[in-house]
Amino acid sequence: MSSVTIRFLGTSAARAIPRWGCDCPQCTAALTDPRARRSRSAILINDTVLVDAGPDIYAQLYAVPYEILAHIDHIIITHPHADHYLGLDDLASLRRLSELPVLPIYAMDDGWERIEEAFRYLIAAEVSQYDRRPFARRPVQVGQTLALPHGLSITFLDTHHTRPFTTAGLLIERGGKRVFYAPDFEEVDDDSVAGADLLILDGAFFSRDQMHQRYQPILEEGQGRHRPILESMEWATRVGAQRVLFTHIGHLGLAPDSLRALLYPGCDLACDGMVVTL
Ligand SMILES: [Zn+2]
Ligand SMILES: [Zn+2]
Ligand SMILES: [Zn+2]
Hints:
alpha/beta, 22% helix, globular, binds zinc ion
């Protein structure tokens, strides 16, 4: 019996691939090969926990077998940047399929102000029979663990991606398997993920040089820090991870095969629709 299944709904950074009007090898490949296209990052864990709901979430869930949608019973928003939460309105109709009267949304305590600014009409702070809003607010803290049905547990870690709010990385554990999912990632305490079976990490930039060419090196409010792929591969080796998949892939200018050729053994790229089972 498998322990943890990750279904990749989307694997791009803040903007989807291909980029309009760009003829770089990455965008050219995506125009001709659907497997090279990337929509905004989101996953399903064991087909029950949805992590993130960006602007592509309706089409992403439409591509999933219909019967799976009825089993989604928890929603996690890693952080309130546009590519991770702006699709919440499209998720509201999930409640029609679910057996739950209200779907719980888990997000870090300090991110709720921004989420509610946009979606207060969808999210109830307290669940009551008179409140017809589809979602319930569930604030969580760094270090908190959700114990979910069937022995699945999810611990919220701080990935130090941005401010003024915390970005969650998720340590997903079941049946002795440990997976760390951090689409927006700068760093995390090494001990918390040491020896993980799978790290799913931020692929927004390949090297720090590339990041500085394309992006302000100074972190301004609301901007994010992203540890480049090259440094994450070194770090993954140091913490003894068995395997690494990169998601949240940025505009790197390389066709997927050229990018894969630069990766260390045990490292690969996720792609939209990929299902990984441990
Ligand atoms: Zn992001
Ligand atoms: Zn391009
Ligand atoms: Zn972000």
